[in-house]
Amino acid sequence: MCQIIDGKRISQEIKDELKEQMGKRRERGEGRCLAVIQVGKDPASTVYVNNKKKACEYIGIKSLSYELPEEATEQELLSIVEELNGRDDVDGILVQLPLPEHMNEDKVLLAIAPEKDVDGFHPINVGNLSIGRPGYVSCTPAGIIQLLKRSGIEIEGKECVVLGRSNIVGKPMAMLLLRENGTVTVCHSRTRNLKEITRRADILVVAVGKPRFVDAEYVKKGAIVVDVGIHRNEEGKLCGDVDFDSVAPLASAITPVPGGVGPMTIAMLMWNCVNGLD
Fold first, then answer.
1. What is the pTM of this model?
2. DSSP character at residue 260
């Protein structure tokens, strides 16, 4: 029978642990503060920002909110980042993506001090991950590792296939699986014989951004399937990159959408905020 990996439960477990940690830190006179900057009123971004604020409040992290209008200049945003970089009372800085088209995302993310880059997007943190040095790790891939570990799934020695090579999920995911002693293959839109490769996977992580792209033909019996995608189908219901109904009967474990990977991203952002580079 297929194990449904419960991201809601595991993310709550992590947040409860962090709440306890923050209680102990406050007893020692230590606080944590996250600054979140949002440009414009993108509805999805607003939901994410509000969820981050709620998570901070629950755990006991102070949050600062900067809401800039859509027409704000790139320099206005960079000035706020520069100010926050220099503040000793701010531990983490997060710029909510996507940014308006007139702003250069790479330039803005590069402006965040690496030691305050709790999203794990700065090239220095990405480089640290690739060579095994301490640094912030991108929250979604870090959350997937926690999902697997806390569900009793062994990574070491397993054949792992990551479908997708984005800087935010695919590449750091491959690095983290390697760090856990998995044997890793990264596939993408130019990969030949894709189904043959994915059918070798003991652990298949799907982050292609295409609704229900992976069906039963891509999955071997007994595989563990992690679905990173989130979309709305024709009926307006949430679905992932994996065709859950056809894949679940084959898999030994699978993450649902919603309620799988999604809740873990904010939980790991909170983990980064609480633990910093300790």
1. 0.94
2. S
**Residue 24: enclosing H or E segment and its boundaries?**
helix 7-27
Q: How far apart are CA 38 and CA 45, in angstroms?
A: 8
Q: Could you read off the pLDDT of 138-168 as tens digits, one per residue?
A: 999 999 999 999 999 999 999 999 999 999 9
Catalytic annotation present for 119: yes
- Provide the 3-class DSSP secondary structure of residue 130: helix
Closest CA to 80 of 124, 39, 122: 39
Residue type, 182: G
Decide if 262 contacts 207 (C-beta within 8 A): no
* Residue of 6, 91, 117, 119 marked active site: 119
pLDDT tens column, 220-266? 999 999 999 999 888 889 999 999 999 999 999 999 999 999 999 99
Count the neighbouring beta carbons within 10 Å of the beta carbon of residue 136.
28
> Residue 114 in contact with residue 135, Cβ under 8 Å?
yes
* Cβ atoms of residues 21 and 51 within 8 Å: no
Q: Which helix (H) or strand (E) holds 246?
A: helix 244-247
Whole-number Å distance between alpha carbons of 86 and 205: 38
Whether 75 sits among the annotated catalytic residues: the reply is no
Q: Average pLDDT of the chain?
A: 96
At residue 278, does pLDDT exceed 70? no
Q: What is the pLDDT of residue 173?
A: 98
Catalytic site residue from 15, 52, 116, 171: 52
What is the percent of the chain where pLDDT is above 90? 93
Distance CA 242, CA 254 (A): 10
Domains of the chain with CATH codes: 29-113 (3.40.50.10860), 139-262 (3.40.50.720)
Position of tokens 């909170």?
270
Known catalytic membership, residue 245: no
User: Which member of 6, 38, 96, 158 is catalytic?
Assistant: 96
